[in-house]
Every structure is written in C-alpha cells, then in structure tokens.
C-alpha cells in the first residue's frame, strides 16, 4: 500500500515545471521569512519598549526619589540649626530644599503617572512631608532670627516623630522604585537573551534556506542543464547519433526531447544534404569540364575562322582592285558588301577573343596608378580625339591593385564610346571622377553626348546589343559588355546613371583588392597565334 500511495505522488511531482518549482519555493521562502521577520520585529519592539521604560522612567524615577530624600534632609538640617541658633544662614538650605522638593515631586508625578502603586507611595511621602512642615518646619522658619526658637525645644519630640515618618515613607518609596527598576532590568536582560536567540535562529534558518535553495537549483536546473549542455557539445563535436537523455523538471525534459527530436531531424537532413552534395559535386565537375571544353572549342573555332576570313577578305579586296570599274555598278556594290562583311566578321571575332580573355589571360594584379592608365588610354585614342576636338579631363585618380591591361580596356571602351557618340556639331566634353565610398571606389565617366534612354540602361551591357545601326555608328556591341565583365571581375558593379540628362554618365565601383577569380586553362598556342 505504501508503494501504491507514493507512486502517484511521484508522477504528480514529475509534472511540475521549473516555473512551478520556483513559484512554490519562492512562496514558501517568503512565508518563512515573513514569519521570521514578524517574530524579529516583535522581539525588537519588546526589547526597545523595556529599554525605554528602564531608561526613561524607572532609573530617572529612582534617581529623582533619592534627590527628593536629599532635599527633605536638607530642609530638616537647616530648620533644626535655625531653631537651635536663630542664625538666618540655616534658612538657605531649608528654602533650597523646599524648591527642589517641589520640582522632584512634579517630575515624579510625570514619570509615575502609569504606576498606581508608585503614585500612592509618592502621595504618602507628600502627606508626611506636608505634616512635618506644617507642624514643625514652617512655624520655626517663621520665628524671628537672632535668638533660638522656643518651638524647637517645645516640639522637638513631635518633630522627630514626624520626620521619622517622612524617612519611612521615603525609604518605602525608594524600595518600591528600586524593586521595579530591578524587575525591568531583569526583563530587559531576559528579552535581550531571547532576542539574541531568535536572531541566531533566524540566521541559521536563512543559511539553511539558502543552502536548500542552492541545492534545489543545482539538482533541479544546473545539473539537467549541464547534462543537456554536455550532450549538445557531444553532438556539435560530430557525434550526431548521440542521444539526449531528458532529466530535471517537466519543461527541461520537454526541451531535451525537442532538442533530441531536432537532432534526429538534423541527422536525416544531413544524410539528405550529403547525398545532394555528392550529386552536386558530380554535376559541378561535369559542368566545369563542359565549360573548359566549350571555351577551348570557342578559342579553337575563333582561331580557325581567322584563316578563312583572311582569305575571303584578301580575295574580295583583290577582286575590287583588279575588276573594279570593269563590271557593272551592281557587281562593284556586291564586291564592296563582301569586303565590308568580311572585315566586320574579323573585327567581331577579334572582339569575342578579347572578351573571352577577360579574367583568363589578363589576370596579373599589381598596384597601378589609374591616372597613368587614363593618360595611356588618351594616347591610344588620340586620333579620334583630335578628329572630334574632344576635351577630356579627370580628377586625381587612386592607386589600386588591379590588372593593368583590363583597366586600359575598361577606360578605352568608356572614353572611346563617349568620343564616338558625341552630338553632331558640338565639341565632346568628357570628365572622369573618383570618390571613395566605404571600402570601394566609385568612378564616373560623364559626357555631353547623345545619351542613353533609361529603358536601355540595362540592355547596353548585354553582349551584341546595339542601340544604333552599323551605318550610323561603327562597332560590334561588345564594348560595354566587356566593361561589365572587367568591373565584376574586380569586385565591382557598373550602371548608367538614369538621373543624368545632359548626355551619358556611366558609374562603376572597384575594390582596392579584387577577389582572385582563376580562369580555365587555354592552350597557349591558340592564344599566341591570335
């Protein structure tokens, strides 16, 4: 029966979450601390009340009673001396004693106002002193000075008896006050001992409570979390088959179960990802092999096309020189068409070869001064610049790590286009700028030419895309596509500024040190022959 009764209780506690354990623990701790605090406050209040009673009432009352006795004794001494001698000097202690007596009785009345027995004793003292003063002291003090008072002798026995009653009343009063003071002192001592014991017990209970809380947190939270962390470290170390054992409160066990479920799902996904990676590696290898073969085919095909084109161009030019003017006008026109087509085809193949070489053959990065590159570009384009009278300026340009050949091709295409597409009858003006933006440099080539419509801002960077016929402007439509490939190879981007309306402004960015992008291997013979 005992085991059957304990098992449901264990199942019930096993469902408690960390929040519930903490809530119950904090509530119990607060209740115990509140009880201890109330007990301590009561003990402190009791100790303070007894201490105040001793310091503010009992001790001052006893001291005042002793002072009252001294004042009465001074009166008796002074009045007895005056009665026997008649010297007025003996009246000073008497009068001073009367004043002190009045003040002490008033103070005692205030101090003992809550003690009926002490007030009764004070009233007895006052009555006996008043009787002695009325029958003996005041009549003798009223007698003329200079001679002994007859009343002192006549009422000596009566005065002595009355003063003995005063002494007895004062002694009884002091005994009561002393006993009350001793009783209060004993209460204070006992209360102080009880206070010390209670606070010692409170300290021990707080230490025990702290130890209990620490042990509960260690067993209920720290140990399960440490075990969970150890399992997680084992899994992150690569042992994904390592199971996670749920321990601790219900929520921590749920967390462990969810993490273990995630581990199992991760194992399945890793297996699937590994299989996909293997397939992807195989596809990437096939694609890389295919790209290499395609590029080699393109180089070889381009090289092989050069010889037939040279022959076609040579023979058509020979036909034009030998038979030009001997045939009809239509034959001469056909010969001109063939020569022009062969020349354009050869130019196109050369441009394609240059486009394919970007990032492949020209891949020697070193520190270059772009202002020198621009000056060399202007020297290369000097004929076209002189023919159009173009004015070309540039800001101070930075020094970057790049391929000098590709940088020359970049600026040659951009500045050459700006010179080519100028407005008829207007002097071309071209300006090159550079400014650093974060880790990149932003360049711009601005001209006052015919401009590019916004809808063609992306199209102009596509290979073979032309906005004008070959009769209007010469070219193969590869220049800006080559510029884009060069810029992207150097870690930047290139765009047409759509907000510039007075011509064309092409902006591009370059990284100080472009990423290394190795190109596929190409037969050196094919390149050298080009």
What layout of secondary structure does this protein have?
Elements (H helix, E strand, L loop, with lengths): L1 H13 L3 H68 L5 H21 L4 H27 L7 H5 L1 H81 L13 H74 L5 H29 L7 E5 H11 L1 H7 L2 E4 L4 E5 H17 L8 E9 L2 E8 L31 H11 L4 E3 L7 E7 L13 H6 L1
Parallel strand pairs: 2-4
Antiparallel strand pairs: 1-3, 4-5, 5-7, 6-7
Helix pairs in contact: 2-3, 2-4, 2-6, 3-4, 4-6, 7-8, 9-11, 11-12
Description:
This protein has 530 residues and is an alpha+beta fold. 70% of the residues lie in helices and 8% in strands. It contains 13 helices and seven strands. The strands form two sheets. The chain has a five-stranded mixed beta sheet with strand order 2-4-5-7-6. It starts with a helix and ends with a helix. The N terminus and C terminus are likely disordered.
**Secondary-structure element pattern, one letter each:** HHHHHHHHEHHEEHEEHEEH
What is the tally of helical segments? Answer: 13
How far apart the termini lie comes to 101 Å
- Poorly predicted runs are 1-10, 517-530
Main sheet record: 5 strands, mixed
Number of strands: 7
In terms of structural class, how would the helical and strand content be classed?
alpha+beta
Globally, the shape reads elongated
Integer-rounded radius of gyration: 60 Å
Q: Which strands sit side by side, in order, in the main sheet?
A: 2-4-5-7-6
């Amino acid at each position: 029966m005992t085991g059957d009764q304990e098992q449901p209780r264990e199942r019930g506690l096993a469902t408690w979450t960390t929040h519930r354990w903490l809530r119950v623990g904090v509530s119990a701790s607060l209740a115990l601390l509140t009880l201890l605090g109330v007990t301590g406050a009561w003990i402190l209040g009791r100790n303070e009340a007894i201490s105040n009673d001793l310091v503010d009432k009992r001790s001052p009352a006893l001291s005042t009673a002793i002072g009252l006795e001294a004042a009465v004794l001074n009166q008796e001494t002074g009045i007895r001396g005056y009665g026997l001698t008649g010297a007025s000097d003996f009246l000073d202690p008497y009068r001073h004693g009367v004043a002190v007596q009045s003040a002490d009785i008033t103070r005692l009345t205030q101090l003992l106002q809550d003690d009926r027995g002490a007030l009764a004793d004070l009233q007895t003292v006052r009555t006996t002193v008043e009787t002695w003063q009325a029958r003996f002291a005041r009549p003798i003090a009223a007698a003329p000075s200079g001679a002994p008072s007859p009343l002192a002798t006549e009422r000596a026995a009566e005065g002595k008896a009355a003063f003995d009653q005063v002494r007895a009343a004062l002694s009884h009063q002091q005994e009561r006050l002393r006993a009350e003071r001793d009783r209060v002192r004993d209460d204070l001592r006992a209360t102080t001992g009880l206070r010390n014991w209670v606070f010692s017990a409170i300290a021990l209970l707080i230490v025990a409570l702290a130890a209990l809380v620490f042990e509960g947190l260690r067993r209920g939270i720290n140990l399960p979390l440490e075990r969970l962390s150890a399992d997680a470290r084992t899994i992150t170390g690569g042992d994904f088959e390592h199971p996670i054992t749920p321990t601790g409160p219900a929520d921590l066990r749920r967390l462990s179960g969810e993490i273990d479920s995630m581990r199992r799902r991760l194992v399945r996904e890793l297996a699937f990802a590994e299989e996909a990676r293997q397939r992807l590696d195989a596809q990437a290898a096939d694609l890389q092999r295919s790209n290499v073969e395609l590029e080699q085919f393109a180089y070889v095909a381009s090289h092989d096309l050069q010889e037939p084109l040279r022959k076609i161009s040579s023979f058509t030019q020979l036909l034009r020189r030998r038979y030009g003017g001997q045939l009809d006008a239509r034959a001469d026109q056909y010969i001109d068409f063939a020569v022009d087509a062969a020349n354009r085809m050869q130019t196109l193949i050369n441009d394609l070869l240059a486009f394919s070489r970007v990032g492949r053959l020209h891949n020697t990065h070193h520190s270059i001064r772009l202002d020198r590159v621009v000056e060399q570009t202007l020297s290369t384009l000097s004929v076209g610049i002189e023919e159009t009278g173009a004015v070309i300026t540039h800001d101070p340009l930075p020094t970057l790590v790049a391929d000098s050949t590709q940088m020359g091709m970049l600026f040659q295409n951009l500045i050459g286009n700006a010179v080519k597409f100028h407005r008829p009858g207007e002097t071309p003006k071209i300006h090159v700028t550079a400014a650093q933006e974060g880790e990149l440099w932003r360049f711009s080539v601005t001209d006052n030419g015919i401009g590019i419509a916004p809808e063609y801002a992306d199209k102009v960077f596509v290979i073979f895309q032309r906005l004008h016929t070959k009769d209007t402007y010469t070219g193969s439509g590869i220049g800006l596509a080559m510029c884009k490939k060069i810029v992207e190879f150097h870690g930047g981007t290139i765009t047409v500024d759509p907000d510039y309306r007075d011509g064309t402004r092409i902006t591009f960015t370059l990284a100080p040190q472009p990423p290394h992008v190795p190109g596929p291997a190409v037969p050196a013979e094919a390149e050298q022959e080009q």
